Amino acid sequence: MESAWITLIWLLPIAAGISWWLGRRSVRVSETDNLRSIHPEYFKGLNYVLNEQPDKAIEVFIKMLEVDSETVETHLALGNLFRRRGEVDRAIRIHQNLIARPTLNREQRALALLELGMDYMRSGLLDRAEGLFKELVETGSHSVQAFSQLLDIYQQEKDWENAINIARKLEFASGETLNAVIAQFYCEKAEELRLSGQEKSAKENLRKALSIDPFCVRASLIEAEELYENGKFKQALAAYQRVESQDSEYLSEAVKPMLNCYRNLDKVDEYMQYLQVIVDKYGGITSMLMLAELIAEQEGEDAAARFITSELKKRPTVRGVNRLIEYALAQAQGGARENLISIKDLTGKLLENRSVYKCRQCGFDAKSLHWQCPSCKNWSTVKPVHGVEGE
User: Fold this and answer.
1) H/E run at residue 319
2) 365 membership: H or E segment, kind and range
3) Coil, strand or helix: which one is 384?
4) CA gap 230, 94 in Å, rounded
5) CATH number of the 184-266 domain
6) Residue 200 and which of 35, 67, 248, 354 are 20 to 30 A apart at CA?
7) Residue 358 belongs to what H/E stretch?
8) Are 222 and 253 a contacting pair, CB within 8 Å?
9) CA neighbor of 39 nearest in space, from 61, 14, 7, 72
10) pLDDT tens per residue, range 35-67
11) What are the extents of the domains in the chain?
12) Whole-structure pTM value
């Protein structure tokens, strides 16, 4: 039902456009003569629109229209409608027919090329779409839209070098900065280079990422991991700690690997002090549980349980309760133990299928971190979930 209403909304302006065109071509002797001159098929199509029969209305309008310079806008609107309805083949035919007409002026042809490129994008014919968008860029027509689509193509193809070049051109054409996105492209290149053993080139791309976007958390995490693998624990630690000032919401991604750095530096006590500051300042169940584990190591599970209890009074979380039950089970017996096991089963079920990350742009739920949202394709919008069932 919703799709039918969307179709009708698109059809109404199309019908109005046809009415205007037909009225313009009619003999303007009088209002009555003008009304009589309108093709009866128009009223038939309009009747279908008003009676919520969009498919029949579309067929009528298509049969009515002559493809010339005066009906270009209506054909473009119909082609766009077909694409939105998922009928990409029909949209392609309409736009290809338009482009083939010698009567089109420069702007009309450019608009038809743009729409045809969008059709090819929708149908997955990226190479054909790329050619059309490049042609638009060369002619200087619809440059922002063409650059945006080319950027989308190169991201889909994971052609990061071309993506960087096009992003810079899009910045110039649109007047908007894309530094944060370009930094992600450099991170993608760095990841690929690391996998192929080209560590020096990977480092260079990470440096570029951080130089154009000092708040790029991903670059810091990749750099820290690389430094740790090469035994440079102090430098790796500095890179991990940088995350706090870049975006504290990603701290949960840094505190776990930081423990290994502190252990290798024999500075676990210093890490505990750092974690306490993080917990007090930002909260976060991951940091709190890390600190609880270290307290259990040094002072015993009773001390860890007291610490968790105190923190849960400030910020209740399911993960915190679940860990507290684990400590309590170690000493419980009889009926109390059975009750705790039942409660732990319940908390375990609450945590079992929960989403750990969520896109702040479109709401996409995920169990692992994606630097580019799989749903809306935005970068750095997927972040750890906070609240009772999250951080």
Assistant:
1) helix 318-329
2) strand 365-366
3) strand
4) 59
5) 1.25.40.10
6) 248
7) strand 357-359
8) no
9) 61
10) 344 444 444 444 544 445 556 656 655 555 544
11) 2-174, 184-266, 282-352, 353-391
12) 0.76
Spatial separation of the C-alpha atoms in residues 94 and 88, rounded to whole Å: 10
Region label for 163, one of left (φ > 0), alpha (ψ between -120 and 50) or beta (otherwise)? alpha
Q: Which of 148, 137, 14, 139 is closest to 75 using CA atoms?
A: 14
User: Do residues 238 and 223 lie in contact, with contact meaning Cβ atoms separated by under 8 Å?
Assistant: no
Count CA atoms closer than 13 A to 140's CA, side-chain side.
0
Q: Residue 104 and residue 67: Cα distance in Å, rounded?
A: 10
CA atoms within 13 A on the CB side of 252: 18
Domains 2-174 and 353-391 share a fold: no
Strand order in the sheet with 365-366: 365-366, 357-359, 382-384
If one counts every other C-beta atom within 10 angstroms of the C-beta of residue 29, the result is: 10
Calculate the dihedral angle through the C-alpha atoms of 258, 260, 265, 266, rounding to the nearest 10 degrees.
110
Which CA distances in Å does 58 have to 14, 53, 132?
10, 9, 27
DSSP 273: H
Q: What is the pLDDT of residue 82?
A: 77
Cα(314)–Cα(312) distance, integer angstroms: 5
* Domain 353-391 coded CATH 2.20.28: yes
pLDDT of residue 180: 96
Q: Give the separation between CA 241 and CA 224, rounded to whole angstroms.
A: 9
Q: For residue 221, give both structure tokens.
A: 């995490």
**Residue at token pair 């423990």:** 259
Secondary structure letter of residue 157 according to DSSP: T
Q: Which residues contact 1 (CB under 8 A, 6 or more apart)?
A: none
From 155, 207, 202, select the one nearest 371 (Cα to Cα).
155
What's the topology of domain 2-174?
1.25.40
